Amino acid sequence: MLKSFKKNIIASAIIIVLIGLMIFFHMIMYKSEHLIAVENVHTRQDMDIAYQVMVYYYNQSITGKMTKEQAQQTTKEIIRQMVYPDNGYYFMFDYNCNMLVIPVAPEMEGQNRCDANIRGNVDKDGKIIFKEFVEVAKSQEKSGYVRYYGLRPRMKNLEDRKEKISYIRGFDPWGWAIGNGYYLEDLHQDVKETGLYFGLMFGMFIMLILFLILVNVYPLIISSETLNKYINHLLKRNYNFDVIESKLKFFADCFEYIKIIKENKTKKSKEKALGFDKNFFNF
């Protein structure tokens, strides 16, 4: 029975740890998905600002206040100067994959980004990145997210490409599109910090559980083992249990009388109060 009790305690502790681990990993996954969803919203909102610049100068051109070429050139210059927090930038390209604006790599402007032979146009999964961009820009929705692997600004080694999500929005009147995005590793850092926090909390929780088991259950197990050994010892010896029972009853009566004496604050001697027989204890 005692062994079964020990096994139940160990099994309960293991189940608690497993449940805690499941909760921990669920929270980490939720945190990661939540951060991506929030960042996608922010990226789309940032895009709305830049897109309105393009719409504004397009309207200037169709009302005759500017020529089409002037409107397009002014739009490119403004977009090139626009930035947003965390080193965010916008890039522009046309529906033929020609790069129009990319502030962090101006040497790429004028290149055809759908040419698979040009270095960096294909990500490590074999995806022609700007081909995907154009498809999104020309889709019925005229906008959407693209997930791929790209180089960070000023990085040259293709082995250093990082996973990125870009938001693309097309502008049919000019056959242009504009994009922005973020690198997932920036979000992963937040997830790591969150994981460290929850990991510490989980570790403290497990330590608390083990401490409670140690303080409350372990002494009970030890006491049970001691009692079990004592009972086995008694069973192995030839004791007269009727006599032992009567002696134990006598001790119980003694303690009861002592309690009464203490409560009544009597000064009578124990021998007189109990009729003590000193030879009574000889087994």
Task: Describe the structure concisely.
By secondary structure, the protein is α+β, with helices and mostly antiparallel strands. It has helices spanning about 1-60, 70-80, 130-135, 185-235, 240-265, 270-275, and strands at about 85, 90, 90-95, 100, 145-150, 160-170, 175-185. The chain has a domain at about 30-190: Beta-Lactamase (2-Layer Sandwich), CATH 3.30.450.20.
General description of the model:
By secondary structure, the chain is of the alpha+beta class. The chain has a domain of 162 residues: PAS domain (Beta-Lactamase). Helices cover 59% and strands 13% of the residues. It has a five-stranded antiparallel beta sheet, with helices on both faces. It has a two-stranded antiparallel ribbon with strand order 1-2. Helix 1 packs antiparallel against helix 2 and helix 1 packs antiparallel against helix 4. The mean pLDDT is 77.
Give the distance, in angstroms, between the N- and C-terminal Cα atoms.
33 Å
Poorly predicted runs are none
The amount of beta strand, in percent, is: 5-15%
What name does CATH use for the topology of the domain at 30-191?
A: Beta-Lactamase
Annotated CATH homologous superfamily of the domain at 30-191: PAS domain
Radius of gyration in whole Å, from Cα?
40 Å
For the biggest β-sheet, the strand order reads: 4-3-7-6-5
Strand segment tally: 7
Query: Helix tally?
Result: 6
Indicate the mean pLDDT: 77
